[in-house]
Structures are given as structure tokens and as C-alpha cells.
Amino acid sequence: MVQYRRNLVAGGTYFFTVTLIDRRSDLLIQHIEVLRESLKKVQQHHPFEIVAWVVLPDHLHAVWTLPSDDSDYSGRWRAIKAHFVRVVKKQGVAITMRADGSAVCWQRRFWEHTIKDDNDLRRCVDYCYINPVKHGLVKAVVDWPYSSFHRDVKRGIYPSNWAGGMRDDGSYGE
């Protein structure tokens, strides 16, 4: 088996791409409240700051900052994915289980990038927010409801008519 090397920095800030196996699925937005509940439940036991977040039908992007003494983002993602699957299964969503007990829902791994500096952070947050436009889901960033963009507009970090303008080099793990 391939050994994946993760950059583990206690208190680090990371950009993530987490994807469903079925890239044609809309499971994440159909069950957005379950995803939010899963996230909050894990945050209660294993705190982290959500710098940015966007949920698309079949994948999501997030930027998190972990506590200064903690680097276990993998455990958090594992717990979020597991809680989400348990709840949507209880709600009647048909999810096949593998022989090892894992669900055929999420891709087994995720893509992670350690944020290096303020410019890198801005680029990754911008990428989160422009992603629904990039995928043709909306014409304007403000029109996508499943994003922390709206929180950042209220905080005065972004104007509501922000349209991106960043160059997409496609190197974000999708």
C-alpha cells in the first residue's frame, strides 16, 4: 500500500479538497444540514477554526486553522465523513458498505495543502469562493448559498459583488 505523507504542522492552516466517489452526485447539497451537523459535532470535541468553506454537490473545499498544539486534521475529516454517512443512512439514503465496514460514499483520501503565507491563504480562500462559478453552478459568487463567503461579506472582508479575478492554474486537488 502507498504511504501518504502529510505535512503535519501543529496550529497550521490548511486548504482541503474532499470529494464524493460519485462525482455526478448532489448528496452534499441535498443533505447540507447533515454535513453542517457533522462539522459542528466534530468541532465540539476537536476544535478548529473555519477560515473558509464551500460545499458543492459532489465535493467541498475548506481552509482550516488547527489549535496550536494539534495537527490531526485527518482524524477530523474521518469523523466528519463517518458522522455524515451514519446520519444520511438513517435518513434512508442507500449507501453501500465495503467488507471492511467503510462506506462507498466519500473518496477514501482527500487533498491537503499547507498554507505558507498570507498570499497563499488569500489565493486558497478566493479559490473556495469562486469554485461554484468555475463549475457553472451560479453566475456570481454571492448567489451560491453553501459557502462561508456570506459570513465574510458580513465581516467586511469581501464585498458582496466580489467576482474573483484570480487566475486559475488548476492546482487545487480536484
What does this structure look like?
The chain is α+β, with helices and mostly antiparallel strands and 174 residues long. The protein folds into 2 domains: 13-120, Alpha-Beta Plaits, CATH 3.30.70; 129-160, no CATH class. 34% of the residues lie in helices and 14% in strands. The chain has 5 helices and 4 strands, in the order E-H-H-E-E-H-E-H-H. It has a 4-stranded antiparallel sheet, with helices on one face. The radius of gyration is 16 Å and the shape is globular.
In short:
By secondary structure, this protein is of the alpha+beta class. The protein contains 5 helices and 4 strands.
Structural topology:
Layout: E1 13-19, H1 27-30, H2 32-45, E2 49-55, E3 59-65, H3 73-90, E4 111-114, H4 118-134, H5 149-154
Antiparallel strand pairs: 1-3, 1-4, 2-3
Helix pairs in contact: 2-3
